[in-house]
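Please study the protein below:
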Amino acid sequence: MRSLPVTLSGLLLVLSACSNSDSIELGVGGSNQDGEGEGGQAEQGGSSADGGQGGEGAGPALCPEATGVYPLSPATSNLLFLLDRSGSMHLRVGDSDTRWTLTTAGLGNILSSVSDDTVAGLAMFPSGDQPITCCAVTAGNFIDCECATGELPEPTERCDAATYDALAVPMDTLASSHVTAMTNAVAASDEEFYWGTPLAPALGGTLDAAVSMSLTGVTSVVLLTDGLPTSCDVTADPGANDLVRALDAASLGAASGVRTYVVGIDAEAASSDPSTDLAINLSQLAAAGGTAAFAGCEATNDCAYLVNVDNFEDALASALSSIALEASSCTFELPTPDGGLPDYDAVNITVTSDGDTLAIAHDDSHANGWDYSPNNAQVILFGDACELMKNDATAKIEVIVGCKTIED
């Protein structure tokens, strides 16, 4: 579950990390060492991002020796949706809707609601094979297959990561024509039954494609799936359906700067075998992809977004909205100071909300604080700090250069 809205009063830190200076405490109201009371303004200091003098930043209060105070701008959000179109997505939810129709409707709704400067694209899996006609959903809502020898496709194409290098719809800003192109591409599979869930090659190939684009801003793959890896094992590769391969792909993508959000479709059924429990495995996948829902979610297998029969439409809408908001609200471009690249051990982040300013500790565990993106081009907020930015559109975030980084 996601945290409730937070305020700065819930995030106060005692700051004691300024070089060659006495420790300073910033609390509600921004009191500083010089005795300025509640609501007092920090003195000017440092350079702004365009090379001029900084404004009323918190640099001097936090770090009297600051060499620059720079406002941070939200990074462009790039969302690459990876949609499972395997046959089980046609199982019914309620009397007439199916997992597929509800999922595609939810995708269309989120594409129409996010900012039109968002960059988005679409990939679907399985790909590389033709749909089959020897399987169908029964009146009892089960998959029934009566396939003759040779009717099921070989795994050669759908289980090759290279198949997924080419997207179904390329990445582009979400003008109405691009939204239409994405929804039309999804609708083309409305009546088609595809065999298998080649999760690892699909995710790995899609992440490879996203990394290779080197898009400006922050790029996230949003995986929507109702199953665990299947249909890729052959005699020469009996372990091809092992979830570890998908976990490795997600971890490699995150290390390369592309995170993986995971939405589990109809993932309520638990299994007596943890290795085949969808909720457990998708939680692990979200954690590996760098998008764990909250600190400690691994212990309760709650790192992914789970959409179940009893709340399908509302839960899916909430999940996609949360993902889009987090991807666009919690990542910021790191400006280059006038003197060139900063000393990355002498950077601090402050957030101002409701007139209160505080420092956010660096936290490379990504539980509650901030960290650099893998290429050091962005600053990413996690935990309460991220929730604050999502819930306060007027909040201001700044980077202060020149004093030792405050660590969690």
